[in-house]
Amino acid sequence: MTRSSTESVVGNPSRKLPQYIAALAASGGALAAGTFLGWTSPAEIPLVQNEEYGFPINAEEFSWIGSMANLGAALMCFPIGILMKMVGRKWAMLLLVLPLMLGWLLIIFASNVAMLMVGRFFLGVGGGAFAISGPAYTAEISDPSIRGALGMFFQLFITLGILFGYAVGAAVNVQVLSIICAVIPIAFGAIFFFMPESPQYFIQKNRIEDASKSLKWLRGSHYDQRAELETLQAEDAKLRAEKITFLQCFQQRATIRALIISLGLVFFHQMSGVNAVIFYTTTIFDAANSGLDPTAATIIVGVIQVVATFLATIIVDRVGRRILLMISDFFMAVSTILLAVYFQLKETDETQVENLGWLPVLALCLFIAMFSIGYGPIPWLMIGELFANNVKAYVSPLGGAFSWLFAFLVTKVFTNLRDALGISGAFWLFSGISLVGTIFVFFIVPETKGISLVEIQRILSGEKVRGTNGHVDRAMEDDEK
């Protein structure tokens, strides 16, 4: 099946604009998630040092306030799959407005540390669920020719949300920042309410007329949806005939391979050292004698993330997932090597780096840019692409939970790692992991650019399917050998 399944049988191509609108609306959830990720940076000094909320918060307590969101996100990754199957992708995402609002209300009116921790936990519940439901919804509504670009919207809007938190937090106090952030999930719900449900969900519920209307909305009123509808029905019939239990899904070759790829990608995503690099942003800029205050340095990092992620959104369906992942991981390794060398020289004799202040700044900017064009957004995109509909509710949440748990662990144990290995040793470790990640992508990760979701399952099952570029995927070809 080399021809796009969304090409009309009568020659009328599908419209792309409605799909962009739906994907942008869905990405409002990612914007809401990004704001609570960016909240911790501008909130730390006012809450810990200035006691802005009127009660004391020490550094250890604030580290728990920040990391509780990761635990909430990990916990919600499993229920969201069931919820998506029960009420649909659209309504599952709309219901996530509730924990986000509850979380912000607890933070806005917090009178003790416990309220802040519980509030952050509920924000994580909403954000972690969006990490699963957002990419899944976008993958299911998209034409294969633009699925990559639309799938990248999720990470792009997360970075926009983080930058929003940095910038607004620099201008207002923590309570006002929290109030402004609380408006975003409300706006998301008001806009996304008018978007269509995924056609795949309607097909699964045997609501063929609703699926047809959804396709008409997404592809345009002049689009003849019969061919795509037949493809979706045939795939659903096949999945029903092969309906499996939770344990049986792990006996399918395609599912096992998709799980290995997804867990591998989120492992290398978290273990790239991105948290350590961001943690040391202020230190690195100070070492360069840049004269920038911590707030300005943080905003610069946020801008680099947004610009690089936007670039990735433009080129992902032209260049492909694999090449961007390999470029990303390789140059992240180069960046962390440069940081390791710098800090090692500084630890040995600070006079050796007196004239090298530019080196860590260059390495940091390169790292953030490379992370943002590859390992930042693409793992989430591919989690939405790799799993078949009959196993998605079972196993795709594992990738999200795995990622959030690793984020929690890395955040909490980085200080111990730094104490044991030194900051240079920690960066040497991260560089080695990134090099291994590059090799992992080359040999294990398939190219999914321009390939329908049905074809991806055939590839993962071991069939040789020619993509839009006309050749069999290298990773799959090597596996067959």
UniProtKB/TrEMBL annotation:
Residues 22-449 form the Major facilitator superfamily (MFS) profile domain. Belongs to the major facilitator superfamily. Sugar transporter (TC 2.A.1.1) family. This is Major facilitator superfamily (MFS) profile domain-containing protein. Its main location: membrane. SUPFAM superfamilies: MFS general substrate transporter (SSF103473). It is a multi-pass membrane protein. PANTHER family: GH07001P-RELATED (PTHR48021:SF1), PTHR48021. The chain crosses the membrane at residues 20-42, 62-84, 91-111, 117-137, 149-168, 174-195, 258-282, 294-316, 323-345, 357-381, 393-414, 426-445. It comes from Aedes albopictus (Asian tiger mosquito). It comes from the Eukaryota.
